[in-house]
Amino acid sequence: MADDPVRRVVIVGGGTAGWLTAGIIAADHRAAHEDGVRVTLVESPTVPILGVGEGTWPSLRDTLRRIGVSETAFIRRCNASFKQGSRFDGWKTGAADDFYYHPFEAPPDADAVDVLALWRAAPPGTPFGEAVSCQAGLCLEGRAPKQAVTPEYAAVANYAYHLDAPAFAALLQEHCMDNLGVRHVRDDVVGALRDDAGGVAAVATREAGAVEGDLFIDCTGSKAVLLGETLGIRTKSASDVLFNDRALAVQAPYAGDAEPIASQTTGTALGAGWVWDIALQTRRGVGYVFSSRHRGEAEARSELSAYLRRAAPHSGVSGEDARLIRFQSAYRETPWTENAVAVGMAQGFVEPLEASAIVMIELSATMISDTLPPRRGMMAGAARRFNERFSYRWGRIVDFLKLHYILSQRPEAYWADHRDKATWPDRLARLVEQWRYEPPSREDFAETLEIFPAASYAYVLYGMGFATESRMTRRRKDAPENAALHVGDVSSKLKKFLGGLPTNRELLSHIRSRGLSRI
């Protein structure tokens, strides 16, 4: 078996995880050609798509371009809108003026100017995110990240998308089958057959029989049919660090066709969690993520209703209309075992804060494709590299999400429990102590492909009011005159962009009617 070529990839499960993985592997490995890898996706017709993940990262632009999907078609088919970052309301104190931005645009080059020197050179009272990046200003004004004449996937300001997850899965399915040569088997999986080496030889289906393969990818969600049920790989819980385990999700229509489409995901802190508010073209996706240890379902529905009355008073929906979703904050430290690898919720899920779910699918599928072993004997090496990379990434996701909670001054028990240092990951605790004397830097994050860079930590730290002491000596990049120049550059860039960029709704209307030009 060691010399057998890896020619057949079998993906079990559809949805965003299954079809995005199928698209990346099929496009890279010529599945539509005789000399390529054969890609088969087995999908049950009776298992519904969860369909909650609607926020993405800028990496999705490269992924869609990589597999050959038109941006115009994607935006039209998936009710998609532009996302330029996240806004956090009420996370520090809950006061009316308590908000900050985590934009996608990074601050100026850290080698040229220190971010704290830049912030100090801005007009007094300027929030950190608005001092070091013009993108927060674009979000405040509801502007799009590009012009109507900007080609597909090109950007004036860095951007990702909000999307309708079931529509996205349907678009990917059609593209994979029509253009990339993916074979689709619609059937219920009733079990898996093991090979002599302890891996998976085939998945057994109710009608189509055994579907054999060389590499199996488990995209069956939290059920994890292959990694969990067949191979017995257990998850590592993160619930002692991140307390949320429930979500109430609802769709809220716009009051009318002229209502602005927000340029960011908005997360609003409540008594026992937070509300996501995601603006698509024709509706908003709203959900309350909370901890069942701190809030019962009935009270959570009441809190969500109060939010909807404030934020979407004309929508006609309330917390009573919301769908309850139960989840566990957990991930697999060895998601690639033998010849089976988990992607999506089968690999792990902690909570939807910072929209890491879809990007982890992208990263997983890309690494599988880039390191796909040509022979079965190389499978163990590929698995080792994959597991090292993704165990590290899950740990950093937990660290970064926890950071959003530990600096809050809110009085509720939920927030107080998050501040308890006994619940902090050791690595995060060490870094927070270090950051009292110096800002986050690239030296704090050793991976070349970090899931969250130093800039992301800075946006959250200083958005939440964290204080880093001033240095007692001055460096070249601390020079006030140098920082003032960069402040001027940020201000000039914002003024230029506001003068030339349309609103989100204006650009999306143009795309629906006329489309974007292809590069």
Question: Could you characterize the architecture of this molecule?
Answer:
The structure is a single chain. It is globular and about 70 Å long. The two termini are 45 Å apart. The protein has 16 helices and 21 strands. It has 519 residues and is α+β, with helices and mostly antiparallel strands. Among the domains are: 8-54 and 164-238 and 329-394, FAD/NAD(P)-binding domain (3-Layer(bba) Sandwich); 246-326. It has a 7-stranded mixed sheet with strand order 5-4-14-15-16-13-17. A 6-stranded mixed sheet has the order 7-2-1-11-20-19. A 3-stranded antiparallel sheet has the order 8-9-10. A hairpin with a 5-residue loop joins strand 8 and strand 9 (200-205).
Low-confidence stretches: none
Radius of gyration: 23 Å
Oligomer: single chain
Question: Share of helix among residues?
Answer: 25-40%
At the first level of CATH, the class of the domain at 8-54 and 164-238 and 329-394 is Alpha Beta
**Count of individual helical segments:** 16
Tell me, rounded to a whole number, the average pLDDT: 96
Strand content: 15-25%
CATH superfamily of the domain at 8-54 and 164-238 and 329-394: FAD/NAD(P)-binding domain
Spatial strand arrangement across the major sheet: 5-4-14-15-16-13-17
Query: Could you please say which CATH topology of the domain at 8-54 and 164-238 and 329-394 applies here?
Result: FAD/NAD(P)-binding domain
The CATH architecture category of the domain at 8-54 and 164-238 and 329-394 equals 3-Layer(bba) Sandwich
**Overall morphology:** globular
Through-space gap between termini? 45 Å
Number of strands: 21
Structural class of the secondary elements?
A: alpha+beta
The main sheet comes to:
7 strands, mixed
